[in-house]
Amino acid sequence: MKQLKNRIIKVQIDNDIILRMGDILAYLMVSSLILVLHPSFDAKLTLRTILLHICFGFIVIATLRTVLGVYSRRKRRDRITAIVLLVESDCVAMLIYYFSQHLLNYMDRIELVTIALIVAPTMGLSFLMRWFQYQIRKWSIDLSDTIPFSPPDISDLEIQEVSDALRSGWITTGPRTKLLEKNLKEYLEASGCVCLNSNTACLEMALRILGIGDGDEVITCAYTYTASASPVIHVGAKLVLVDCGREDGSIEMDYDALEKAITTRTKAVIPVDLAGIPCDYDRVFEIVERKKALFSANSDIQAAIGRVVVIADAAHALGARYKGGMVGSVADFSCFSFHAVKNFTTGEGGALTWRHIDGVDDDQIYKQLQLYSLHGQSKDALAKTQKGSWEYDIVAPWYKCNMTDVAAAIGLAQLERYPLMLRRRRIIIRKYDDALKQRGIITLEHRTEDRTGSGHLYITRVPGITEEVRNKIIIEMAEAGVTCNVHYKPLPMMTAYKNLGFDIADYPNAYDKYVNEITLPLYSTLSDSEVAKTIDKFTEICNGYIKSLN
Ligand SMILES: Cc1ncc(COP(=O)(O)O)c(C=O)c1O
Q: What is the H or E stretch that residue 458 is in?
């Protein structure tokens, strides 16, 4: 059985080869069958029919590809490629046809009927093979031992884009990174966008461009990943952590605590869109506006903003909306993560977007971020390759966190597929919600009137259990073949933050939310049967610990 499973999984890996082999097999089988059974079978006629068949096949495939290329892809480059392919294939087809006409006599009606008879079943069989291959893939996933927590969703499109980048002769920051920046800026409705090598780098660069450093304070939530907070330390500012609110349906910062934490030294607040659910930005902006009198600017951008700056840690929230606006254009600055486990990945990577600030030139922000991310070098590597353009200056000894074109190539493909990927995540959330809410499991609200989350994490809380029981449930889930996780152990429980003087006793809500938290698998390639298995195992195992779950 294990051997069979391995073979099936191998078939899944060799998916591309199977597809092509399926097409060729179908083509050969049907054409030889029809030709041999044909009443007027003779060698000459067979040769001519095959030639015409190939010619016809070329046109059909090229037309189909063009139609798919034009309608399923948004990029102009792809449309041009698809049309070039059509023209190319038509030329080849015409050549074959011309050749066959001269080599042999003209066709009779029977031959035309033969061709029609060949083409229709060939396409039918080819379609059947593809359907069969899809079923094998689904079956192999269902049979596999363990449902992973968050594997990346990489299709042939990403592989193609990366291989194009590798073949292009330019693999570091260059045209693909610029195109991804442009596409993301449009998608996120932002005034500017720069792609870097992580969300952490984006947060740090946002703090640096604002001139935040020694003597300043930056506030974020205790219930988050270290990367929301560590950039504050990197720039030399003081980190201020606030607790999260008590409400069950969310893990946002306690906004009253945020208001109280703002002092004359506060320069920025970093709200975290945990699980991809946007924070209450109206509330955050109301607070920083109300506290305007305490604010004193120590850089031009800070002066232009004139209040505490809102920098969203939107690591989880690509594609989320707040009151109709895209996260990425709501806060002053927004930082996204394209790490391997995120909804949208470039392996490692991130994007920093911003909203227009009156009196500040968006291009100037972009240029400064380019300098920060590339050693303070006045020309990037691509600009230096222009004829006679070797000379550059180092304007300051800055940082190195640029995105490569190989990574951007993955991002370009992911962005094309992203609306469908998001849709699948939302469908899974609905299935989980329907099954778990009625059993008393606490979950987050991924969709409300004002907010549409990006469906990054399915965070649950099992009522009334201790931390030990939570850990036991996670182990039992793993034994049952479902990988779960915890998001997050609050920062004041981590050594680095304890050493900075933080104590979890000061963050009771964060602690309460953490002790019984279990995150279930949620990703675009999770199949319906895997969702069903996760729900069954989770409710069954939780039932053993809390009698109320029925
Ligand atoms: C909430 C949050 N912020 C920031 C990050 C950091 O992202 P990156 O790894 O791209 O720096 C993560 C990554 O897991 C995260 O979960």
A: strand 458-461
Q: Does the predicted model carry a pTM greater than 0.70? A: yes
Q: How does DSSP classify residue 245?
A: P
The tokens for 267 are 């320069």
In angstroms, rounded to a whole number, what is the distance separating the alpha carbons of residues 407 and 316?
18
How crowded is the C-beta side of 174, counted as CA atoms within 13 Å? 16
- 502-534 pLDDT, tens digit per residue, is 999 999 999 999 999 999 999 999 999 999 999
Ligand 1 near 224 CB (within 6 A): yes
Does the beta carbon of 377 sit less than 6 angstroms from any atom of ligand 1? no
pLDDT at residue number 10: 42
Mean pLDDT value across residues 153-173: 96
Ligand 1: atom nearest CA of 487 is 16
- The set of residues, in sequence order, having a beta carbon less than 8 Å from that of 115 and lying 6+ positions away, is 49, 52, 53, 56
Higher-scoring residue by pLDDT: 240, 28: 240
pLDDT of residue 2: 47
**Tokens 């798919």 belong to which residue?**
68
The answer to whether the CB of 199 is under 6 A from ligand 1 is: yes
Distance 227 CA to ligand 1 centre (A): 5
Q: What is the token pair recorded at 390? A: 């070797």
Instruction: Tell me the CA–centroid distance for residue 58 and ligand 1, in Å.
Output: 48
| Structural contact between residues 57 and 15, judged by C-beta atoms closer than 8 angstroms | no
pLDDT digits over 125-160, tens only?
666 766 776 666 666 655 567 999 999 999 999 999
pLDDT in tens, 89-125: 566 666 665 655 555 555 555 565 666 666 666 666 6
The answer, yes or no, to whether any atom of ligand 1 lies below 6 A from the CB of 538, is no
Residue nearest to atom 1 of ligand 1 (CA): 225
End-to-end CA distance of the chain: 35
**277 close to ligand 1 (CB < 6 Angstrom):** no
Q: How far is the CA of 487 from the centre of ligand 1 (A)?
A: 12
Pocket mutation for ligand 1, best pick of 150, 195, 198, 199 (most atoms within 8 Å of C-beta) = 199
Determine the 3-state secondary structure of 515 from DSSP.
helix
Please check whether residue 531 is in contact with residue 483, taking contact to mean a CB–CB distance below 8 angstroms: no
Strand-pairing partners, residue 312, are: 334
The residue written with tokens 């006679």 in the block is 388
Q: pLDDT, tens digit, for every residue of 209-241?
A: 999 999 999 999 999 999 999 999 999 999 999
Name the residue among 166, 127, 101, 115 with its Cα closest to residue 19. 127
At residue 375, the 3 state secondary structure works out as coil
Q: Indicate if ligand 1 lies below 6 Å from the C-beta of 302.
A: no
* C-alpha 337 to ligand 1 mean position (Å): 6
Element (H, E) at 266: strand 266-270
Which atom, in ligand 1's list, is nearest to the CA of 227?
4
Q: Which residue has the tokens 């294939």?
A: 89
Q: In what order do the strands lie in the sheet with 442-443?
A: 442-443, 458-461, 517-520
Instruction: For residue 199, give Cα distances in angstroms to 5, 230, 327, 344, 363.
Output: 38, 12, 15, 12, 21
Q: Is the CB of 339 under 6 A from ligand 1?
A: yes
